[in-house]
Amino acid sequence: MKFIATNLPGVWLVELNRVCDARGFFARVYCQNEFKKHGLDFTVVQTSLSFNKKRGTLRGLHFQKQPYAEQKIVCCVKGRIFDVAVDIRSGTSTQWQWYGVELENGQMLYLPEGFAHGYQTLTDDTLILYHHSQFYHPEAADGLRWDDPFLKISWPLCPTVISVQDRYRPLLEERTDLLWKKSW
After folding, report:
1. pTM (two decimals)
2. Where are the domains of the chain?
3. Quick one: which of 11, 48, 122, 144 could link to 61 by a disulfide (CB 3.0–4.6 Å)?
4. Predicted pLDDT at 182
């Protein structure tokens, strides 16, 4: 595996080392030893799969609140996506900054705790595999508005499909909860 640092400390782009032959290729998607070599203590407790029919589908920006904050590995198995991580950790020099990257062909993005995550599909019929370090807790599920003017995320396409919940989350300036004051 090849680990590439991003502009957000703790967020890594991970590329596969493929062993190719006449059949195709074989590659490790996760290796605890490889992650530990890069200072990433990640244990998979849950794996999820997301299929998206239409180009332009937007999901996010999602995270789980403390004490259920999670690390994620997001892998684009089929198709192509624009994947986004937003630093929501209070007191960091990169708080509210985002990193966006196109993923395809098994490329992955690793996100530590304290990051919101979302993506937009750039092709029809995308398949995304998630590895989570924490079990899903519906009471801790939260998110940021995908088009919040404070974040200024440059999504490549106008969304074609988006959930009502993601479309109408409150803007950061409207948030009255103390989530942003907690340290990660």
Report:
1. 0.92
2. 43-176
3. 144
4. 47
Residue by residue, what is the 3-state secondary structure of the chain? CEEEECCCCCCEEEECCCEEECCEEECCCCCHHHHHHCCCCCCCCEEEEEEECCCCEEEEEEEECCCCCCCEEEEEEECEEEEEEEECCCCCCCCCCEEEEEEECCCEEEECCCEEEEEEECCCCEEEEEEECCCCCHHHEEECCCCCCCCCCCCCCCCCEECHHHHCCCCHHHCCCCHHHCCC
Active site residues: 62, 130
Give the number of other Cβ atoms within 10 Å of residue 27's Cβ.
13
For the chain of 184 residues, list the mean pLDDT of each consecutive stretch of 10: 95 94 92 94 96 97 94 97 95 94 96 97 98 96 95 97 95 73 46
